[in-house]
Amino acid sequence: MAGIQESPAQRIERLDSLPWEGAGSPGVGIGRTTSQLVDIWRHRELLGLLTRRELKARYKDSTLGFFWSLIKPLTQLLIYAIVVGEFLGAARNVENFAIYLFAGLTIYLLFSEVVGGATSSIIANSGLVKKVYLPREIFPLSAVGSAIFNFLIQFVILLIAAAVFGTLTFGPHLLYGLGGFAVVLIYATAIGILLSALNVYLRDVQYLVEVVLMLFMWGTPILYHWSFATDRMPPWLAEIYLNNPVTLAVIGFQEAFWAPTSDAEPLPLLALRLLIAGVVGVALLFGAQRVFSRLQGNFAQEL
């Protein structure tokens, strides 16, 4: 009744009797996703600031600065090239093994950095999440931007090395590299957005991701040619292995920057496989965003 004020106890009792309503974003379908993309676009300057902040924080007070983004992959390249290529003999079976290895490593590190950085992005920015309204997708997307910057530095080194070793030629095969980049970016972003939300509720996710990414690298044809693995698999398992989007992206990069001067067996229908993987990845990205949207409403309470 009007004019009657509730006591605190009565208010609590009344609120307890109401049905639970999740705080996630309401609505479903493309329309809701489109409105959220528009919201992200309105905050694009903030996204740029967060990306730059992440890059600066990573190398803060460092003398070499962004050169550290080169040191790690080059160190891995040196170790793998010597230990796996020379000591274990992989270089005898793969021409220009250093370029083959670095091409696969460059695109895989992009996938690994996007997924790893995005997974922990909400937790790392918990202060902003609890105090300021903004599209929460900005945080995993800032990790994507940071990873792309590091990838571009490594990609330049790959181009220079491929030119020096004579494996860089110009032609339609370079489109395989573009397709591989697009596929990795789509899937890594989708997985990163999804895991960033799950990590708020299950903090062990980020540590599990680190282990899985380390194991997953050995499941992609970076240190060996893909035919070495498929020759030892039943046909159905070989098809699953080859149609893994990360495997396709790695092979695409190798076809673009290593294969033109090699007599290695090409993967049949690589362009079609990349196209199908890209279409499926876009659907996965849409689904990941919808799950994130449902879960983000309770981030502040969980943090």
Task: Give a written overview of the molecule.
This protein has 303 residues and is an all-alpha fold. 72% of the residues lie in helices and 0% in strands. It is built from 15 helices and no strands. Helix 5 (97-119) packs antiparallel against helix 8 (138-165), helix 5 packs parallel to helix 9 (174-201) and helix 5 (97-119) runs antiparallel to helix 13 (245-257). The protein starts with 7 loop residues before the first helix and ends with a helix.
Mean pLDDT, to the nearest integer, reads 82
Structural class: mainly alpha
Strand content: under 5%
Please give the count of helices. 15
User: How many domain units?
Assistant: 1
What's the total count of β strands? 0
Largest sheet: none
Q: How far is it from the N-terminal to the C-terminal residue, by CA?
A: 38 Å
Over the alpha carbons, how many angstroms does the gyration radius reach?
23 Å
What would you call the shape? elongated
Low-pLDDT stretches are 20-28
Q: Helicity, in percent? A: over 70%
Order of helices and strands: HHHHHHHHHHHHHHH
Topology of this structure?
Layout: H1 8-17, H2 29-42, H3 44-58, H4 68-87, H5 97-119, H6 121-124, H7 126-131, H8 138-165, H9 174-201, H10 205-218, H11 226-230, H12 235-242, H13 245-257, H14 270-295, H15 299-302
Helix pairs in contact: 3-8, 4-5, 5-8, 5-9, 5-10, 5-13, 9-13, 9-14, 13-14
Question: Care to give the gist of this entry?
Answer:
By secondary structure, the chain is mainly alpha-helical. The protein has one domain. The chain has 15 helices and no strands.
